[in-house]
Amino acid sequence: MNKRTGSILKVEFFRFLLPTVMSIMAMSLNEFVDSIIVSNLINSDAMSLITMASPLVTAYGVVYTLLGIGGAALYAVCSGRHETKKADSVFSVTLFTAIAVSFVIFAGGLLFSTPLSSLMCKASEYYSSFVPYVRGLVLSAIVIIPVQVILYFMPAFGRPGTGTAINITANVINLLMDYVYIEICGFGLEGAAYATLTGYAAGFFILLYLHIRKKLRLPFAKVKRHEFRILGETISTGLSSAMNQIGYCIKIAFVNYLAFALAGMSGVTTFSVCMQAVSMVSILIGGVIDATIPMAASLYGQRDFSGIRLLMKTAMIVQFVSNALALAFFEIYPQIVLNMYNVTGDMAGPAVLGLRIFSLSFIFRGFILMYMCLFPVIGRKIYAFVISLFDGFLGIIPLSLILTDFHGINGLWEAFAILPALMLIIILAVNIFISARSNGKYSKFMLIEKEDTNVPVFDCTIYMSREDISDLADRIQSFCMAEKLETRLSTMTALVSEEMSVYTLENSKDTELKSIDIILKIFPEYVLMDFRSIGKPFDISSIPETGNDFSSMSVLRKASSSFEYNYTLGMNQTRIKVARG
After folding, report:
1. Are 80 and 203 members of one domain?
2. Residue pLDDT, tens place only, 238-249
3. Cα separation of 493 and 477, whole Å?
4. What's the mean pLDDT in 513-525?
5. pLDDT band at 398, cuts 50/70/90?
6. What is the Cα–Cα distance from 358 to 275, expressed in whole angstroms?
7. Which of 77, 247, 327, 413 would be 358's cystine partner, CB 3.0–4.6 Å?
8. Around Cβ 122, how many Cβ atoms within 10 Å?
9. Helix (H, G, I), strand (E, B), or coil: what is residue 416?
């Protein structure tokens, strides 16, 4: 019983995983289907023009990734520390910044739409269609960036399903409005941009409706000027993820150039097939990362290092199994992917070989991405940034140039397969070195801080039954006595644990997983207890006093010196302090 099972964290992880996977899948399918619809409603040149404008869309992605991932992670850290006001300020500062940046992009884009268009599109004969399309995309920035930033916060609010539903709705409306604006209204390519604008505007109004109707709490706060300093920490936390997107664009441009130089259109086609395979695999891996980041951040805020290790173990296993299955599929059935994109004839043979070699990267790169998402959360932002640079373009460019000198076009696919393995070996070696230098303060493989050995810790999971709760109190009292706490403090600590567990039991009758995580730490001046459970919110600090001196709440108030409550990521988290004296 004196052991954490991790059942609560596993349940929450998988509860977050499905919505985040569905959200990424919706966006990926939208891009795929949107291109098909537009090219069929107009012509194949329209799809090429949309591709030419992709740097602008990528710029939006960099902004909302930088602010969204960084802000959501920092919000979860503050929530884990029970710093509710600061958490609300993080959300407000992040959103206000996103709105400000989106309007700057809107104003600058409209003002310089013609030179911006000529920079992205070199074919002047298409300017009559391309410039209005760019202006429509620039206009859509005022809703895309703020809405996506809010959606990144949804898992941290404990509402991943709501975020997914809004994302899917926005993308479906986008696809429907493609037909309305292009076919019915006759707006041509410009209509595709207006369809995107309409879809995300619908998402914005859904968010606004839910907030006004109090079905979703967006934690706005009055922000003072000095609180905008939070922005620096937000940006530094999201920098590695944003940089990875920029590096991805550089990598794509370089590899397309090199593949064409080595094998002509056959090389470019093979690389396109490989990138489509990456998109398929990224749906689940992206979901794993998006489910992991807010939970790890909240646990880090609580200084629950054991919880982070349990969470990361689950996440690492899920991503490894997913990538192993993906690798097996692409190795055994590469022709299925080729048929999806109509790759036949002389191009089919090289594409099959290229895809099989390239797919080997999946088994190692998943670990790289997991490290990249974990390290900013635990304070190793520079380390994560360096990893993102090498994963983005600094690694693949020199390695591919070396290997293609020996093996031609196949050396390019070998570079993709070898780079993640090399990076993983180097990361593990660096981690072991850092751990050794810290005298064991940090774990060898993930650099998660270990518990202070000078602070006695009682860490367990119990089933919510009267018998287990009573047994818990006895065990805690024995633990406290063994750690030389005075009898009165040991008794009060055991009493608090029992009454809080009983209160949780009484307020969790409709919960499927009837377990509680209890983490007790003994400090020189006080005993600190953290209780975590799944279920509907119950704020013990807001319950009014009653005349019943023997109720759980009355006993808790008398026995504890302070208690704090927070409902984070769908979990009730209560922190109770029992002071000496």
Report:
1. yes
2. 888 888 888 887
3. 7
4. 87
5. very high
6. 10
7. 413
8. 8
9. helix
Please list the alpha-helical segments (H only) found in 81-120: 84-111, 113-120
Asked whether residue 408 falls in the same domain as residue 485, the answer is: no
> What is the number of other CB atoms lying within 10 angstroms of the CB of residue 271?
25
Is 418 in the same domain as 463? Answer: no
Per residue, what are the HEC states of 309-374? Answer: HHHHHHHHHHHHHHHHHHHHHHHHCHHHHHHHCCCCHHHHHHHHHHHHHHHCCHHHHHHHHHHHHH
431 contacts 370 by C-beta, under 8 angstroms: no
Residue 510: which domain range? 457-579
Report residue 415's pLDDT band, with 50, 70 and 90 as the boundaries: very high
Q: What one-letter code names the amino acid at 169?
A: T
Distance CA 516, CA 505 (A): 9
| Residue 450 forms part of a structural domain | no
Residue 194 lies in a domain: yes
What mean pLDDT comes out for the span 548-575? Answer: 76
Query: CA 260 from chain center: how many Å?
Result: 35
> For residues 483 and 478, what is the distance between their CA atoms, to the nearest angstrom?
9
| CB of 162 closer than 8 Å to CB of 151 | no
b/e code 297-325 from CB counts within 10 Å (16+ = b) = bbbbbbbbbbbbbbbbebbbebbbebbee
Closest CA to 571 of 527, 517, 505, 496: 517
Helix (H) or strand (E) holding 566: strand 562-568
Record the tokens describing residue 105, joined without a space.
């992009």
Question: Is 449 within the bounds of a domain?
Answer: no
Q: Give the residue-averaged pLDDT of 50-57.
A: 76
Please tell me the distance from the alpha carbon of residue 334 to that of residue 346, in angstroms, as a whole number.
15
Locate 108 and state its tokens.
Answer: 């600058």
Give the pLDDT of residue 1. Answer: 44
- In 408-545, which ranges are continuous DSSP H helix? 409-437, 466-482, 487-506
DSSP 124: G
Question: What is the domain-level CATH number for residue 476?
Answer: 3.30.565.10
Q: Both tokens of residue 241?
A: 């993820």
Residues 260 and 316 in one domain: yes
One domain, residues 401 and 325 = yes
Helix then strand then coil, % of the chain, to nearest 5: 75, 5, 20
Q: Tell me how far CA of residue 362 lies from CA of 289, 322, 375, 386, 490, in angstroms.
A: 15, 9, 20, 20, 52
pLDDT of 406 above 60: yes
| Alpha carbon distance 134, 196 (integer Å) | 12
- For 520, phi then psi, to 5°, come to -115, 130
* Structure token pair of residue 493: 């600590």
What is the pLDDT of the chain when averaged over all its residues?
A: 86
Distance CA 447, CA 312 (A): 12
Distance separating alpha carbons of residues 497 and 511, to the nearest angstrom = 20
Tell me the C-alpha distance between 443 and 31, whole Å: 41
Q: What is the pLDDT of residue 541?
A: 63
Residue that has been written with the tokens 């206000």 in this structure: 96
* CB-facing half-sphere around the CA of 530: CA atoms within 13 A: 23
